[in-house]
Amino acid sequence: MKIMVAIKRVVDYAVKIRxxxxxxxxxxxxxxxxxxxxxxxxxxxxxKIKESKLASEVIAVSIGPAQCVDTLRTGLAMGAxxxxxxxxxxxxxxxxxxxxxxxxxxxxxxxxxxxxxxxIDDDCNQTGQMVAGLLNWPQGTxxxxxxxxxxxxxxTVDREVDGGLETLCLDLxxxxxxxxxxxxxxxxxxxxxxxxxxxxxxxxxxEELKVEIRSDMEVLHVKEPQKxxxxxxxxxxxxxxxxxxxxxxVI
Length: 251
Description:
Structural class: alpha/beta
CATH superfamily: HUPs
Number of helices: 6
Shape: globular
């Protein structure tokens, strides 16, 4: 079984976000970029599955401009066998990403597609669900535990929901999106970083995949959230209750 993992290049989680002067988006020039943390978890899970002898190959996929190759090299250094770079515009919405991933799945025929549940730049949390719908594959989103039964060719997924945990049994092939508590991603070692330089990265375009990039959405305006008011220290429980009753609704 091959496993395909989608990874995204985003502004590093430790960087303080700045809005562009023209209010069209987030400033990315001269800003540290890294792999989306949820994508790191997805890749780690794929590598663990392969190390358990349940998969033969892990393929990392990134969609975006040329700089995505750096993110793919990180994935290869972590342990992915090969990578695919879909050279596309930097701004893509979830449905376009899902269509590209569907086209890649049709070509590569993986038994499992793993994605992070969301990217920290847009927090859309839509791509995994959309690509599962396009493929007509079962899906397990927000996975906090994944167990495979090789004989039955199924995956049991514990997923985090508002009321606790829900357990799903998925026939393979399937789509899984990962949550924070699934695992702890490994660090790339120096020897593996050196090996990653010789691992293949295939470049392809949406046109070659016969996917039309278009969107019915348009970003009109981007602005920073309102700054929070400074906290106050209260002298009694009664004062706290009074503020909760009379001021909690005030933004």
